[in-house]
Amino acid sequence: TLAADGSRPPRFEFAARATAFQLDPYVAVLSPRVDFSAAVNGHAHVTGSLESYDGEATLSLANATYVGVPIALDSVEMTAAAGRWTAAPFEFRVSSVPFDAAATFDVETYAFSAAFPAAIPISDLLTWLPNASEGTLEDAEGFVRLAAEGEGSFSSPVAHVTAHLSDARFRSARLGDSDATFTYEDGAITGDGALVDGAYALALAGEVTSEGVPFEASIAFADTDVLPLIRLAGQPAGKGLSSTTVGGEVIVTGDF
Known about the structure:
mainly beta, 15-stranded antiparallel beta sheet
């Protein structure tokens, strides 16, 4: 292929293999706030020019963790055509929770999707949280279905996450079914959610900064039974209350 000026760009052939290549020193320099550790195994073979190349690669992670949570990626196969990589559908696991995923990307843009293959118990998801087994969250019951997708440029990334909570209970008090959606775009995080029966509505707004993620969340209640929340907080179940049904709005601000 000729360049715009009629010249022929230089071609190359590149091959590499990695065995237990430790990523930690590079993560510490490039993204010091990211608590990620892993060793990479795999190989790559690429031919063509910098403007347009073809190739193939395989990748796996060993001893990978993110904020202390184990991540397993046994193998992912990728192919490149005209400078754009495609990762064939693959599975990875966060703690014991599996995800089905796929992705395409080049040096400027990307598209990805990831989702639970089926609804999973809330108790499995809570293994992502530090010390979850030591508090009242260990009494959470129910199922979660989660999906994420995104498409855009690396300079201005966009991602969407949807979650569906079903048959949720805390200490035998039924919270109900709930849907929530979260979006990351232009450095801002927004979200909303509601119980299927309309008993509460959640709105979330935040912004990712170099110092953290300051946010504001509002929860509106309309004739809502707060007994599950009382039990979640570890308090006696409605002791001294003639009614646990409330209405109103709670606004919470903070920083992730």
